[in-house]
Specification:
Elements lengths: L2 E5 L4 H12 L5 E4 L7 H11 L26 H10 L8 E4 L2 E4 L16 E3 L5 E3 L9 E4 L3 H10 L13 E6 L5 E10 L2 E9 L8 H15 L4 E6 L4 H5 L3 E3 L6 H4 L3 H5 L5 E6 L3
Parallel strand pairs: 1-2, 10-11
Antiparallel strand pairs: 1-3, 3-4, 5-6, 7-8, 8-9, 9-10, 11-13, 12-13
Length: 282
């Protein structure tokens, strides 16, 4: 496996990530990006590979972030890229790229799904011990659903709405492990600055292994790639994986008009359905 880490040796999170990679049996290419900053083109490639926006990669602490007025939400992506090229310290770290994908590894254990044989237990510099989940799912492979009837059947069996699945503006994905084992489905509706997650179903034999959370995280990343700053979801049953991902229960008054105008909000989900919200970049 090829592993590259964009590293700052002065950063504890970056040092922990590097050591976690090495204890997993990989010797990465180490790029000390403050000494050898990536080109603008490479930085854009990394941002796209991670499925984030330039703003998501900005580091505030110990940088000229405030001095440069980078908190101004009207600044364009190009302006933020210009700032990172002029001041590489603004690039958050560590970024890890492997054959499985790319991620900003904060916290450092975010590197584990990117590795072929991730270390089972690791003690960080501050004494915190992190453990690989015993049922940790490898990187999921998503493809467009090519069996509408099968999709409807899975949703119906899970008690989820099916009346609008053929309407435009919905994206449904089939998820499998890298060896082709089907694990579930998920869908989303891009709504500009928001994305509505929906139709997340995990096959029974895969439940309790973090698959639902992995699917939801992938859907959020896709929504973020289309400009969504906030993710929403309606649930009628217990969806603990949403809380584990940092979603919080909110009143419908907190939802933007685009979410309230969806078929789910206007009747497909019951009036008692719980609404969840999370910023996609967190």
């Amino acid at each position: 496996m090829t592993v590259t880490i964009y590293h700052n040796p002065a950063c504890g999170t970056s040092r922990n990530t590097l050591e976690m990679i090495r204890q997993s049996g990989e010797e990465p290419e180490v790029v000390e990006y403050l000494k050898a900053p990536p080109s603008r083109e490479r930085l854009i490639e990394l941002i796209h590979a991670m499925g984030i926006r330039p703003r998501d990669l900005l580091r505030e602490k110990g940088t000229p972030y405030a001095e440069l007025g980078l908190g101004n939400q009207t600044l364009s992506d190009d302006a933020l890229l210009d700032a990172m090229m002029a001041h590489p310290i603004l690039i958050n770290r560590p970024i890890v790229v492997t054959d499985k994908g790319a991620a900003l590894c904060r916290p450092s254990e975010k590197v584990l799904p990117l590795l072929a044989n991730p270390v089972a237990t690791f003690t960080k510099e501050d004494g915190e011990t992190c453990r690989r989940h015993p049922g940790m799912i490898p990187t999921l492979v998503a493809t467009a659903v090519d069996d509408p009837a099968g999709l409807v059947g899975l949703l119906s069996a899970a008690g989820l709405p099916t009346e609008d699945v053929a309407e435009p503006g919905r994206v449904f994905l089939r998820y499998a492990t890298e060896d082709g084992e089907f694990v579930g489905i998920g869908g989303f509706e891009p709504l500009g600055a928001a994305v509505l997650l929906r139709s997340i179903v995990v096959v029974p034999e895969q439940r309790g292994r973090g698959v639902g959370g992995a699917i939801a995280a992938d859907l959020m990343q896709r929504g973020r790639g289309q400009g969504a700053a906030d993710a929403f979801a309606f649930t009628t049953g217990e969806r603990t994986f949403l809380a584990a991902l940092g979603f919080r229960r909110v009143e419908r008054t907190e939802a933007p008009a685009a979410v309230l105008a969806t078929r789910q909000a206007m009747g497909l989900c019951s009036a008692s359905a719980v609404l969840w919200r999370k910023e996609t970049a967190r």
